[in-house]
Amino acid sequence: MERRQLAKYDLPDVPGVYLFKQGRKVLYVGKASILRDRVRSYFDDDLIATRGPRIVDMITKATGMIYHTTPTVLEALMREAALIRKYCPYANVEGKDDKTFLYAVITGERIPRVLMERGSNLDFKAKKLEGQKLKALYGPFTSGAQLHEGLRLIRRIFPFFDTPKPVGYKGKHQQARVEFNTQIGQYPRAFDKKSYARSIRHVRMFLAGKTKELRRLLEKEMKEAAKEERFEEAGQMRRQLFALDHIQDVSLIRDENRYPQNVATTTSRGYRIEAYDTAHISGTNAVGVMAVVIDGIPVKKEYRSFRIRGFKKNDDIGSLKEILSRRLAHPEWPYPHVIVVDGGKAQKRAAERVLAEASVVIPVVAVVKDEKHRPREVLPAGRQASVHGVGISDVILANSEAHRFSLRLHQAARKRAARF
Fold first, then answer.
1. N or C end of the chain: smaller count of CB under 10 Å?
2. What does the pLDDT read at residue 104?
3. Are the CB atoms for 378 and 387 separated by under 8 Å?
4. Are 148 and 116 in contact (CB under 8 A)?
5. What stretches of 38-175 adopt beta strand conformation (E)?
6. What per-residue string of b and e applies to 77-100 under the rule 16 or more CB within 10 Å gives b?
7. How would residue 384 be classed by pLDDT, with cut points 50, 70 and 90?
8. Which residues, including other chains, have CB under 8 Å from residue 197's CB and lie 6 or more apart?
């Protein structure tokens, strides 16, 4: 296919999905925030440098293309995943298997959860996750960061649970997560089995790319609720319909070059968060830690610990600066998209100074705790659901993981010291 052939397609300046074809065979499926610009980019002179030989080969073989517009980029993301699953285009999946991609799954529990999982964790034939039957599975999604952001946006319209353990599990971390997410509207405020089942049904339709059918269903349910004088429910459905058409999803199409050269080693495996914490008693047995969360999943093999050397007193700021400085001395570790520190404005500024001195540009988020060491506030204040493009629930998860890890290491250090 050649650039001059694009003129006949009259590509619009709106979001959507596009399919390159060889006759009737689909070679490649992609999504775009602006269809015209995205499709034209496949005919740039530097295509092999920017997209690689597989895409160049696909364009050479293509004899035509089709496209479908969508109201939002989020819907384009869902349609892309559904079409890749339907056609398995060679230029999307060649050299990969199902375990490489990420998927959105809905558990088959009494209170279903909506989770993001790697293909390696799934039994596709039995449709199970860790031996548990799934209600539904969607994907593959080629970008973990975009799936993470997509689920965050969907959850703002149709609240659902995404806890690590089944709903009702009494673990301290999970209870804190449920409490926090309920407060910010990410989890249902007042659980009702019938309402939650309806919300999950809507989520399933959205993830399947059936957004037109979803809008028709919501309009029907809204009219029925109004007719039966269930005006509060009707108002909620009206707000959901409005939200579907006005999703602020610019963050889905990320600029992968927004960081300077010295952070170009940012992991390509997904959206990486690093969280830092320290633990000590009156300055003794001081230990600092780095916890890692990628695409909403703790990756414990990448956790790191640091024995604090330069600060023997109870100096949290000094310890944090030492930990970050020593971490930046390891460029072989992929740099994160966001850094999370435990504390307030002082800790946030200290971390930003260390990064600035190293000429590294990474956003810093601080988690402020209350007197019971529970998350009270996230700095800088996001628009309820996110800050710096990452969901607040994942910020809290990373912070909690760092705190748990630091306590465990500190307890071990105290036990060793007690033996002597």
1. C
2. 94
3. yes
4. yes
5. 64-69, 102-107, 114-118, 122-123, 128-129, 132-141
6. bbbbbbbbbebebbbbbeeeeeee
7. very low
8. none
Rounded Cα distance, 380 and 22, in Å = 49
Cα 391 from Cα 79, distance rounded (Å): 22
Domain boundary among 207, 230, 252: 252
**Domain span at 294:** 261-418
CA distance 263 to 278: 25
280/396 same-domain check = yes
Number of domains in the chain: 3
* Cβ atoms of 222 and 214 closer than 8 Å: no
CB 371 within 8 A of CB 155: no
- Tell which residue, 107, 198, 217, 199, has the closest CA to residue 157: 199
Find the mean pLDDT for residues 178-199: 84
**What CATH code is carried by the domain that includes residue 381?**
3.30.420.340
pLDDT at residue 253 greater than cutoff 60 = no
Q: Is the pTM of this model over 0.85?
A: no
pLDDT at 268 over 50: no
